[in-house]
Q: What sequence folds into this?
């Protein structure tokens, strides 16, 4: 979590509403609402997001209930808990991540049409 | 070339097609019909239909066997069904009950 | 995982199975299976392997493509070449960078609805090598550099014992979809 985050929603802090910006943000507290970032968003192990996250890259070690949309990647770290929808070109799920979520990734067109009898 | 191997603890219900040789150590209920050789091992059991370029039986077949080039029924084999092939070998110790049709055109 | 004697079932790269496979040993799919694959051990869909249907096993590894549903009783892994179109359930799941899923992932003990498996598309795909476009799309992308370095957990990769996904072997692309129908 020791990225270049120059903004932190610290442990014990609760933010309700919309948060936006263009520098990396780490959430170690609670955010209820929307997060729109032009930089990497990190949900620290203690962090909780209820709502929507939109950022180029999202790293989750804490908890998310809602939708996450990343234009580049989403990484789910061990111990994270995710409920909702994840959309990104790349998603990495590490051992120990817990999710009950819908993944929206590009898997190409169905191949079920080929190979008729 | 890669084979298709049906292991001794596997049962397939359906059809096996394609171009890989098929080695049957387990069970198939249905059709084995690759454009390649088929080997029914001693532990293998095939029912319904087996067709291959060459078919060699050491196990059990209940059904019809077509060998586009040849069929070999080896010692220990149990064959219940008809065989269509231009060339056939039935070894001593094989059990075979069925008809053999040999005017089958080689392809 | 494997049969005690090391036995296994392997569906070759140019083989197509239409029907159901039930095994008490590892099943490796290098070709194409249309139906249900069940094993008390592992089911590994190898790179270039394709399953249209349902997979259920103690361990499931997807390095190829699955269209349908999968349930792993113990653990599921989607490798960097794996792609899943459909719903998955497993108590533990790992997806390496490059793997892709379009569907639900359930780790709470619920199971996918078999009926929810995607229906076969009515438009036959263009005659191209299976999955190439998706693979290229996933692998291309200039932003690949910005990806986070794999952490230890990811690079450890903890594969289920005997599963054997790695060797990127040189082999012809999977079945010509119309091959094999004599």
A:
């Amino acid at each position: 979590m020791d990225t270049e985050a120059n903004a932190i929603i610290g442990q014990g802090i609760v933010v309700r509403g919309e948060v936006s910006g263009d520098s990396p943000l780490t959430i170690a507290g609670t955010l209820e609402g929307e997060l729109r970032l032009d930089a990497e968003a990190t949900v620290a192990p203690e962090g909780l997001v209820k709502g929507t996250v939109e950022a180029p890259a999202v790293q989750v070690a804490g908890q998310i209930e809602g939708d996450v949309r990343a234009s580049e990647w989403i990484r789910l770290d061990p111990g994270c808990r995710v409920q909702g929808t994840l959309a990104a070109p790349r998603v990495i799920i590490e051992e120990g991540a817990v999710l009950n979520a819908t993944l929206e990734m590009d898997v190409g067109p169905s191949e079920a049409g080929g190979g008729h009898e | 070339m890669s084979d298709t191997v049906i292991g001794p603890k596997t049962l397939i219900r359906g059809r096996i097609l394609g171009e890989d040789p098929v080695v049957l150590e387990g069970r198939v209920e249905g059709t084995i019909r690759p454009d390649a050789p088929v080997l029914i091992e001693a532990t293998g059991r095939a029912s319904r239909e087996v067709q291959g370029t060459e078919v060699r039986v050491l196990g059990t077949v209940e059904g019809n066997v077509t060998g586009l080039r040849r069929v070999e029924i080896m010692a220990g084999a149990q064959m219940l069904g008809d065989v269509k092939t231009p060339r056939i070998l039935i070894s001593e110790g094989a059990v075979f009950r069925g008809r053999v049709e040999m005017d089958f055109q080689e392809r | 995982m494997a049969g005690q004697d090391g036995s296994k079932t392997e569906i070759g790269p140019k083989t197509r199975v239409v029907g159901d496979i039930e095994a008490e040993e590892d099943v490796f799919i290098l070709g194409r299976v249309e139906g249900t694959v069940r094993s008390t051990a592992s089911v590994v869909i190898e790179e270039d392997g394709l399953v249209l249907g349902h997979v259920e096993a103690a361990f499931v590894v997807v390095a190829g493509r699955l269209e349908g549903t999968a349930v792993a009783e113990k653990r599921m892994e989607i490798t960097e070449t794996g792609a899943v179109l459909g719903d998955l359930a497993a108590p533990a799941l790992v997806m390496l960078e490059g793997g892709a899923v379009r569907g639900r992932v359930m780790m709470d003990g619920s199971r996918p609805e078999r009926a929810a498996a995607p229906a076969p598309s009515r438009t036959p795909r263009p005659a191209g090598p299976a999955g190439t476009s998706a693979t290229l799309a996933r692998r291309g992308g200039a932003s690949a550099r910005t990806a986070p370095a794999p952490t230890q957990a990811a690079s450890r990769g903890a594969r289920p014992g005997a599963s054997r996904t790695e060797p990127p072997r040189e082999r012809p692309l999977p079945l010509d979809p119309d091959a094999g129908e004599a």
